[in-house]
Amino acid sequence: MIEAVGLTKRYGAKTAVYNLSFQVRPGTVTGFLGPNGSGKSTTMRMILGLDKPTQGRVTIGGHPYNELPNAPRQVGALLDAKAVHGGRTARSHLLSLAQLSGIPARRVDEVLGVVGLQEVAKRRSNGFSLGMGQRLGIAAALLGDPQVLLFDEPVNGLDPEGILWVRNLMKSLAAEGRTVFVSSHLMSEMALTAEHLIVIGRGQLLADMSVRDFIAHNSAGFARVRTPDTEPAQREKLSAALTEAGGQVLPEPDGGLRVTGLPLPRISDLAHEADVRLWELSPHQASLEEAYMRMTQGAVDYRSTVDQRAGLQQQPAPGMMPPPAPVPGQDQPGWYAPPPPQGQPQQPPAPGENPYATPQPPAPAPALPVAPPPPASTTATMDKTDETQKDDAR
Ligand SMILES: Nc1ncnc2c1ncn2[C@@H]1O[C@H](COP(=O)(O)OP(=O)(O)OP(=O)(O)O)[C@@H](O)[C@H]1O
């Protein structure tokens, strides 16, 4: 299990991760989501002991990564698939990693087979495509047959067959009882791969819940109703009955009606009472992508000036954590720290509760208390080191 407690990382005046606490449990694929620059890679680097937290701690199986005995046998990671000596062949790259951790050479051939690179094992990796590089990075992560696996954007550059393969690989690793933590910007893929999600925005926790609950909390379900196309009067009659009963009714382009504010059985009863025949009455829920866009819309740092979402800004669903607002002075030295996300996200609808209710605007967010600035000496010293490390890595 991976456990982060109050994890914070500052680079000079920039707070990349703030007071992040979460657990990644074995046996399920946990997706790690957040807009560009929200702190996912920084968090993963701290988990792997590559960056030192400014505050807080993160452990794997109860120990910081750097204190794990023979860590490569316990934890495997794909952070940057390009971080490979391009002059080496795929096999010699893996062999050198294996030798450093006392892993037998036969395991190298095994993982080359697992990722489908056996045919090109003797080719230099600088001639590899993006997808082949990803496969090599995944092979390196699997080398020590570790119980804990971290993947930063593993499907980046893979073709549809490769994406399907990664999806099945992640699931089978989790099914074997391993801890699998995977970041991705591909929501449709995450919806199919992950069971649990940790979502961050501007370095702070926005959600820690199952994919199912995440979608339920961050999107308004609706019912779709269709009356016989040949009888427009029936549609009008039903629309009036539903509106009178407190529902919100919107016409859909195909002649159907989108209804919120009324549960499905009530819609059915109202149609029956109005003597209207139904061709369709179906429950609908947003996709993970819609729910994610809705939750993170206030936490996006980089947005095109022609962003189509500009016209789609909505009030968040009831109970969801409001996305962290830009913190005044955050980029200035000595900025005051915002509090951690307040309260718990909304629970799924209780039995008998109306899942199709119209979302209500959330209560106003509490005012931010002013916290003292971080001690300048610690931050400044470490930031310099980290900045240098990042430059070196480039
Ligand atoms: N070594 C560093 N020095 C200074 N700032 C840094 C450093 N590493 C990361 N940052 C900053 O911290 C923030 C979080 O970056 P990070 O790479 O963790 O985000 P991310 O969620 O992984 O983004 P993406 O989805 O684009 O990969 C960014 O504003 C980034 O510029």
TrEMBL record:
Start-end of Basic and acidic residues biased regions: 383-394
GO molecular function per UniProt: ATP binding; ATP hydrolysis activity
Family assignment from sequence similarity: Belongs to the ABC transporter superfamily.
InterPro entries referenced in this protein's UniProt entry, alphabetically: AAA+_ATPase, ABC_transporter-like_ATP-bd, P-loop_NTPase
Domain ABC transporter: 2-227
Protein name (database record): ABC transporter ATP-binding protein
Biological source species: Streptomyces tabacisoli
Region annotation Disordered: where it falls in the sequence: 308-394
Keyword set, alphabetical order: ATP-binding, Nucleotide-binding, Transport
PANTHER family linked: ABC TRANSPORTER, ATP-BINDING PROTEIN
Nucleotide-binding in keyword set: yes
Top-level taxonomy: Bacteria, Bacillati, Actinomycetota, Actinomycetes, Kitasatosporales
Biased composition (Pro residues): 336-376
PROSITE patterns xrefs: ABC_TRANSPORTER_2 (PS50893)
